[in-house]
Automatic annotation (TrEMBL):
InterPro entries: 6-hairpin_glycosidase_sf, 6hp_glycosidase-like_sf, GH125
Pfam families tied to this protein: Glyco_hydro_125
One GO biological process term: carbohydrate metabolic process
Protein name from the UniProt record: Metal-independent alpha-mannosidase
Organism placement in taxonomy: Bacteria, Bacillati, Actinomycetota, Actinomycetes, Micrococcales
Residue ranges of coiled coil: none
Natural source organism: Lapillicoccus jejuensis
């Protein structure tokens, strides 16, 4: 792997084996798309910095999202046989932990103290912060990456005091937001779009104290209708639980490990108590959002963590509750489910009606059958609008209508899907990326 002006070039034997396995499918369009996606993120999105850390571009927006960057780096953990790439990913871990300590409420940061932002009306004056929409998943994804990094590589050089401080900071916020009235966090934006700001002077809609942890925004960056997201709480619980062994082994911090387990247990128990509801057509299901006051939203959005993808995150086992929830969200009962000539799957209020998100199609395939996975891989190769990109979304009846010219997260999920297909067919002995 050699460094370029814009990023890094992948030199991994496992990556070569993956491309060879995909090529054996005999579909040149699939092979071309996988190769493009495989190399685009390292070459264009991973940006090594003078301080030894690595910034990660979300794609065609010049900022680093904590969620996206964690997912992007997570995909490439399977290629850490490339020692140089492993160092680049260590830099991602270091930069993400620093971002959490700097401002745990920020969902996206600048590559430097430039003062750039998505919207200057947001009211913060931190030159490092691109956007300060608090999303529980931003913290959960960083915590999850820390655990996966340690389990996959065994490296502890970037898991020093800065990483321990990031975990402690995240714990503090997750605990504090179990009673949002005690929090000082507020978010307002000068906009007519209610989905882009929080009501009641930035406090958000009323919630009860349930034991779940509050979030202002969904992983789509859209404002919640009700501010307890079941997927976010279950994912945070799983990430915290998996951090406990790291806290003991690397930091010899039994108190921190116990705190992780205690909060994980509390979040999971509260979610299963308050967010599991009866649906007349599907039985016992997980609501997408609740407020503890009777407000319930039955839906699912493709951004991670989604209800659909919870087993992939080790946050909910396959079983009756997941099966019923999956059936609901992959049907017309989900207001953001769309079906058309070229695809059927999860859309989002973040995009126009009729647009489905490839990351949602991949989540459905990865929680489905081997046939689902191979069919989805072919479908994505034929719905790129002729661009060679996995876009944020595309219209179910016209793939030439899409959003986001370059969406690196979409590229990464295609790589994840290709690895799963290759493993299904026995063309890879095993995907070395450890499951949660």
């Amino acid at each position: 792997m050699t460094t370029t002006s814009s990023g890094v070039r992948l030199r991994s034997r496992r990556a070569t084996a993956l491309v060879d396995a995909v090529a054996s499918l005999g579909d040149p369009a699939v092979t071309a798309l996988v190769e493009a996606c495989l190399h685009r993120t390292p070459e264009r999105a991973f940006v090594p910095q003078p301080d030894g850390t690595t910034a990660v571009l979300t794609g065609d927006i010049p900022a680093m999202w904590l969620r996206d960057a964690s997912i992007q780096a997570g995909t490439y953990l399977r290629f850490t046989d490339d020692a140089d790439l492993q160092d680049v990913l260590a830099g991602v871990v270091a930069r993400l932990t620093a971002a959490v300590v700097h401002d745990p409420y920020a969902n996206a940061v600048n590559l430097g103290p430039t003062g750039a932002s998505w919207d200057a009306s947001d009211g913060h004056d931190d030159p490092w912060v691109w956007e300060r929409k608090y999303e529980i998943d931003s913290l959960a994804h960083v915590l999850d990456l820390l655990g996966r990094w340690w389990r996959t590589t065994g490296r502890t050089d970037v898991l020093g005091e800065a990483a321990r401080a990031a975990v402690a900071t995240a714990l503090e916020i997750l605990e504090l937001e179990r009673d949002h009235a005690a929090s000082s966090y507020r978010f307002t934006r000068d906009t007519h779009l209610t989905i882009d700001t929080l009501g009641r002077g930035g406090l958000g809609s009323p919630v009860a104290v349930t034991g779940m942890s509050w979030t202002g925004f969904r992983p789509s960056d859209d404002a919640c209708t009700f501010h307890f997201t079941s997927a976010g709480n279950l994912f945070a619980a799983a990430a915290l639980e998996r951090l406990a062994p790291l806290a003991r082994a690397v930091w010899a911090d039994e108190a921190l490990a116990a705190r992780c387990v205690r909060l994980a247990t509390g979040l999971r128990d509260a979610t299963l108590e308050h967010a599991v509801v009866d649906d007349p057509h599907h039985g016992r299901v997980l609501a997408y959002e609740v407020d503890g006051l009777g407000g319930t939203l039955l839906a699912d959005d493709p951004n991670s963590p989604s209800l659909l993808g919870l087993p992939l995150l080790g946050a909910l086992p396959y079983g009756a509750l997941y099966a019923a929830t999956r059936t609901l969200v992959l049907s017309g009962a989900n207001p953001w489910y769309y079906a058309g000539v070229h695809a059927a799957g999860l859309g989002s209020p973040h995009t126009e009606p009729g647009y489905v998100w490839p990351i949602g199609l991949v989540a459905a395939a990865l929680t489905g059958t081997a046939d689902d996975r191979r069919a989805t891989l072919g479908r994505l190769a034929r719905t790129d609008g002729g661009t060679g990109h996995v876009h944020e979304s595309f219209h179910v009846d016209d793939p030439s209508r899409w959003t986001r010219e370059w969406f690196s997260w979409g590229d990464c999920t295609l790589v994840d899907l290709a690895a799963a297909v290759a493993t299904d067919r026995g063309r890879l002995v095993a995907d070395p990326l450890e499951a949660p």
